[in-house]
Amino acid sequence: MSKSFKASTTRVLPVIYNPSAGQRHGRRLSSVLAALEQLGWRVELRTTAGPGDAERLALEALASGVVRLAVAGGDGTVHEVVNGLAASGITNAGPQIGIIPLGTANVLAAEIGLPRTAAGIAACLVEGGIREVRLGEVRFGNSGQRYFILMAGVGFDAEVVARVSSDLKRRLGKGAYVWESLRLAFRYAYPAFSVVRDGKVETAHAIIAARSSRYGGHYLLTPAAGLSAPKLQACLFTRRGPMAVLSYGAALLAGKLFRRSDLKVIAFDELRVTSPIGQPVQADGDSIGMTPVSVSLSEHRVRLTVPA
User: Fold this and answer.
1) Predicted confidence (pLDDT) per residue in 251-299, tens digit
2) CATH numbers and ranges of domains, the chain
3) Strands 286-290 and 280-283
4) Peptide bond between residue 307 and the one before it cis (omega within 30 degrees of 0)
5) Is the peptide bond before 115 cis (omega within 30 degrees of 0)?
6) What is the radius of gyration, based on Cα positions, of the chain?
7) How are beta strands 263-268 and 206-210 bridged, if at all?
8) Do 258 and 221 touch, CB atoms closer than 8 A?
9) What would the pLDDT profile of 72-128 be if each residue is shown by its tens digit?
10) How many CB atoms lie within 10 A of CB 98?
11) Within 10 A of 39 (CB to CB), how many other CB atoms are there?
12) Which residues form the DAGKc domain (predicted)?
């Protein structure tokens, strides 16, 4: 059980740590913590006890007046932290959030250009600059909302996220998603989604609403997206079937996905996926609910620690 937070003082860095994400990267965490100590900082480790616990710890940090905070985990752990801060109702405040990437894909680390060495990560945590990031928001009708900092999606990738097990991710890392994608490619139904934007209805077999330009790690999804971009970008995948999945995947690995004629990229303020109902929705690599949904930029912002 984690101890309660104390208000941050000079040279003390509270760290919200997800041990499930960190099982494959324990050496990295130890090295970063040692580098922080060499820089003269004392770490207060707050360990999550299960799914959703990082939200609680983020709220505790906010309530106790912490001004600088680190998240040691994957993109899903950061997702929980920003949702905890957003749940407070404060739209433009809260602690400065740094990351120690321990997850499977670590898209956020790639997006901000976080150094890969322990010394570089530690230096960024305590000497980096601040970037204010406006969160994306997924609304589920009258049943609530979730916020995202990287992307939200429906279709094949959301189905993979919903089905891949935590145990497989711990054992195979990114390979877990490759395995599940190959397993599902010839079994998935590839439904046609109705997408409503600015009163117009379009059809796509998968949609990714991107805040981040990257996907699945350092791979470029669309250069039009970005954490500081004024709009979200919708990537509409218009082909269906297992060969389309393999072709899209190869293009992503080659950095050419956004150039394809069968991928439509559009800027938007609000987008609704109205049908079919009951299809999985993912945000920041975590399964968060089912369609129908609306996606937009939120008024909630977080202060992210980035390389100086």
Assistant:
1) 999 999 999 999 999 999 999 999 999 999 999 999 999 999 999 999 9
2) 12-127 (3.40.50.10330), 137-298 (2.60.200.40)
3) antiparallel
4) no
5) no
6) 19
7) unpaired
8) yes
9) 999 999 999 999 999 887 666 689 999 999 988 899 999 999 999 999 999 999 999
10) 24
11) 15
12) 8-142
Measured distance CA(37)–CA(70) in Å, rounded: 14
Amino acid in position 175: G
Instruction: Report the residue count for the chain.
Output: 308
- Cβ–Cβ under 8 Å, residues 222 and 233: yes
Token pair, residue 245, equals 């999945």
User: Would you list the DSSP string of 130-144?
Assistant: EEEEEEEEEE-TTS-
Write down the residue that tokens 């609304």 correspond to.
139
Cα atoms in the 13 Å half-sphere on the side-chain side of 222 = 26
Return d(Cα 192, Cα 202) in angstroms, integer.
10
- How far CA 55 is from CA of 60, 87, 133, 241, in Å, comes to 9, 9, 18, 37
Which phi and psi angles does 279 have, rounded to 5°?
Answer: -95, 145
List CB contacts of 276: < 8 A, sequence separation 6 or more: 191, 193, 291
Q: Put residue 79 in one of left, alpha, beta given phi > 0 → left and psi -120 to 50 → alpha.
A: alpha
State how far the Cα of 116 lies from the Cα of 19, in Å rounded to an integer.
20
Render pLDDT for 140-189 as a digit per residue (tens, 0 to 9).
987 799 999 999 999 999 999 999 877 777 777 778 888 888 999 999 99
The DSSP line for 248-297 is HHHHHHTT-GGG-TTEEEEEESEEEEEESTT-EEEETTEEEEESSEEEEE
Q: Tell me how far apart the alpha carbons of residues 135 and 151 are, in angstroms, rounded to a whole number.
A: 10
Which residues are 267's β-sheet partners?
Answer: 233
DSSP 97-109: EEEEE-SSS-HHH
